[in-house]
Amino acid sequence: MSTVAGASAPGAAGPPQPVGAAPRRSSPRSMLWVWLLLGLLALASARVLSGADDIDSPGTLGAALTLAIPIALAGLGGLWSERAGVVNIGLEGMMILGTLGAGYYTFHFGVWAGLLGAMAFGAIGGLLHGTATVVFGVDHIVSGVAINIIAAGAAAFLAEVFFSGLPGGGPTQSPALPNAPSFGVPILSGAASDLATKDWFVVSDAASVVAALTTDMSAFTLLALAAFAGTYWVLWHTPFGLRLRSCGESPTAAETLGVNVYRYKMIAVTASGALAGFAGCYLAVVASSGYANGQTGGRGYIGLAAMIFGNWRPGGLLTGSLLFGYTDAARLRSGGESVHALLLVVAAGLLVFALWQLRRARAAHAVGFAVAGGVVLFWFLATDTIPSDFTQMTPFVATLLVLALFSQRLRMPAADGQRYRRGEAG
Amino acid sequence: MSKTVTATAAVRLTDIAKRFPGVIANHDVDVTITPGTVHALVGENGAGKSTLMKILYGVQKPDDGTISVGGEQVTFASPADAISQGIGMVFQHFQLADNLTVLENVVLGAEKLHGIKQQARDEIERLSSAYGFGLDPEELVESLGVGQRQRVEILKVLYRGARIIILDEPTAVLVPQEVDALFANLRELKREGHTLVFISHKLDEVLAVADEITVLRRGTTVATVEPSSVTAHDLAELMVGAELPSPSTAESTVTDEVVLDVAGLRVDDAAGRSLLHEVSLRIHAGEVLGIAGVEGNGQTELVEAVIGMRPAAAGSVALGGDDVTGWDTRRRRAAGIGYIPEDRHRHGLLLGAPLWENRILGHQTRPPSTRGVWINRPGAAEDSQRIVESYDVRTPGVDANAGALSGGNQQKFIVGREMSGDPVLLVAAHPTRGVDVGAQAAIWDQIRAARRQGLAVLLVSADLDEVIGLSDTIRAVLRGRLTDEFDPQTVTPQELGAAMTGAGTQPQAQP
Amino acid sequence: MSRARRLGLTLIAPLIAVVAAALVTSLVLLGVGESVGEFWAVVLSVPSSRLMVTIVNNASVLYLSGLAAAIGFRMNLFNIGVEGQYRVATFAGAYFAGLALLPGVLNTLVAIGVAMAAGAAWAGIAAVLRVTRGVSEVISTIMLNAIAGGLVAFLLRELGEQQGQIRRTTTIPESAWVPGIPLIPGEPSLVYGLALLALVAGVGYAVVLNRTRFGFDLRATGASETAAVASGVNVKRMTVAALLLSGAVAGLIGMPDLFGDSHAYGSTIQVGLGFTGIAVALVGRNHPAGIALGALIFAFLSVQSNALGIIAGISPEIVAVTQGVVVLSVVIAYEVVRRYQLRIEQTEVARALEREPAAGSEVGT
Questions:
Q1: Is the ipTM, as predicted for this complex, more than 0.95?
Q2: Residue B509: pLDDT above 50?
Q3: Which fold has domain A56-334?
């Protein structure tokens, strides 16, 4: 065994530090507010400049939230898993299992049983992934891909078995499901909606946000937000969470200190599956009217992208999900026009990024981004609307864009994706 | 000259022995550690110091002998047992999670002691100020310098109530100022009644801080002395043994033709800290330049810079008449640089591939491994067989996976492969590490034979026998700088040991 | 380790996987109250000659898909985007051939080249993102799959023509069609002429990976990046090359059907081939013969399952479960076998050496 002490040995040498200011972690909450404010400004400007009024109407924003939650929950599942060091590509499959569980249990036993059933189904997927990766040491991505294949097949098969004979159902979809209870704040909601229809820059847009939040807020949404808060508290403020995170940062250090790394990884991956199951339930019950084959449509993967964008923290993850959910909503509601307006936002973003790359003296990258920004701007100016085929891709293009822009700045848990075997410490 | 023990020893190791397959790591080891002192354990690489301390910390179990703590005999099944006896160990390779804070790293696994919030924070601050560590519990470990990280490791053991603290090569990665800070901390700890066991090979430091010194050589204790009664040279002599490995008395094969010319080389790490400063050397055809030094002083960076795996921040590297500073690894190797890496598993072999495929590794551009764009399987297999025979590689055949061979045989194969390419320059980093004595001699003979044919060799080694026995010229490396040249015919072990460890070249009076 | 034993260990994993998959499938069927016996009766029935031709056709297409994925896997790159690359490539090839710029066979050959180039380019996007911006190719290729769907739909709308109810590219002129192969005497349906591409690609894959310098570098990088770097490999260049190659092979997937049967790209194009190819590559452990076996098994299951609905009243989708379980259990089985194999080998080597006279103790490590 090589025992070179020096810069090449991991952990033994660190960067020399100037005495004085040490980088603290930026508070997740403050970053979230900054992004939200920037987003509001960007949308307001785009609305005024392009005349596409629907891009931040209360309806669109409400839809954005509804479509964001499944992505956010899937991403939260991914966060639990990756914080413990296990990459979970199988989230899509676990989400599919969740939609199936929701379809079956909600129809027969009601929304709350549906939620539990969905989470249980998802957790089974998680358990499978955990067994393959933690116990048998299978490559994380391979296991995830295999689980997606199994889940898709199982869901399609069981859907036919469960739903074929039911009224309103069929081999590929469930009957219409009852929705979860929803709440509103009547007076505030009405006032905000009124304010939103006036065209006042930023004020109306802000009112739009308020209206969206106070009208028809699903109980599941509140539950999801509680899951976020709960995750933050458990992972960053309890001994359990500390140990779990240490498994993803340095499992050998954890092992030398007596932590049972295998156990925490299994728990994390199972929880990850349960959350993906919740995401599926939300999708089937709140965002749609029931189970349908293929309804997840890649949202599990988008959730992973949101997690990466959020730098593996709940606050950033939520922001990213809102972004992706928004693109999803914009294209679904008024398709071409809204997405066309978004081009302006994207062009602006790319040009800003190009300037930033210039500041960091990376000329080649700056030119690349500037050219890309120019192309998008030209596209915006030269056309009036976007063909529907392209609007369908909006969330996926957004994902790619976000990853291309931000992947390098982010830091995943240090031991994420690594095969871990007990006894390799010291 | 040892001190009579008047108080109950904090730790006493008696007749400790430990064997691994093919290696006797420790035998007949006796160490007595007085409470409230700094006890240093010195010896060369491979002398058995780390293994002994791992036994004391419960990571390994001794094959023979007893351990007693505070007068009572104990056995340790795991580090948890050692911790419960008040023993803590700070490993040479820190076990810290970069993305977590100091607080989180310290309390991990011991959350029950003081929780993970304010109480823990207070306790850490208390310990930190009591011993002058200056650590902020909320700081991320990744932003800490090496000295600070080490203090976090020490804090970890103090937090768990250790009274006996083992430090394994603590100054191996510290710069002088950090070393001073560490020693100040150690003196504080001593004042508070802790017992410290300090493993090192840096004699100047050991003499500065220790109260008692035990010397290990080839797995056993050779002496226990007090710093006031020895000089660094005495220690160096004890460490390396008074025998002088006999240098080759054959005629010099060094020619005038310069093969490798390194000028003003500087290598920096990712954060801009210089790992090599102003390194200049010249190797001629038929010459072996031996770089003696303890690991961690820049040898790895020198080797990687010559091979092309690490960019030079400043300076140049020239091979033959060509400036290869900008060349990538493939081009350099194709130009005739052979490379025996110090970490054969990471850089030298494909463990899951058969030997004949490993013959091709690093030689993808030259026969007999390849013919144009094609891999020449029979050629590679035949040549592998030749290597197996000439270098006495013990394997069932050339189809055996490299990972199944023992370390020594893997190394022999690598040496054979690298010598086969008709190299003009051989870069050998610790070429006989983990190789049995017979094979070691065979490898040395092969290097000498190639040298007679005009091969230039850059030899990096921590084994003095090897450096003195093979080299035409010797230089030592310490903290990224090369010393002046030594002549292997005339250098004494004291001089070389002193240059490697920074003990100075003149007899010194004790401070 | 003896050749026979090594072979045995290599085969035992897929065997375990097949058995495990059969068990799980049967359990699931039992669980939902379907007849296990009827299922196996249908699936294991001897296929008619017409179905056999279909199986061979499907298998050859799956084989190409598996090869494309395997090229990436050998270098530890997960090209999940085979699906998207195949779509883009097939459209490009179909469109070009439909333009009829070149006569007869030349048209066919160049169109295939266009398809390979398109597939490579689409994969190239993910490659560039990975080496310049550090984006994980897993997610980027998945996103590109979805984007490919939208892009091709748009292009079909703009550049295609309406033929009855469906929209397709201009039909390829007959001179460019590739005749089928009458594999089974007396059977009217023919095996795709371009199924031979699968053979060529398989041989090419084996030769390039095992016999060329490039292939050696690729495999070395996948096995141990550090050793590859020390041996002179430029990892970034290698990554791009591997992904481009993978995309180019993905471009071949649609060719047999295009030139042998459908003669145009339309909305009826078979979906999911890319993902099944990944499964087949995993089952075949990236080995050209193994992938062939996997492709045959998967094709067999898919084709046989079509009759399940009609004959046994069981949804054909159950076969997807079977296939998925095969993949998962085979990768688990491979891991277990690998660890076992390593231990055996080390013991064997140690035993072989023990028989030799001892060479003395080794100097400290």
A1: no
A2: no
A3: ABC transporter involved in vitamin B12 uptake, BtuC (1.10.3470)
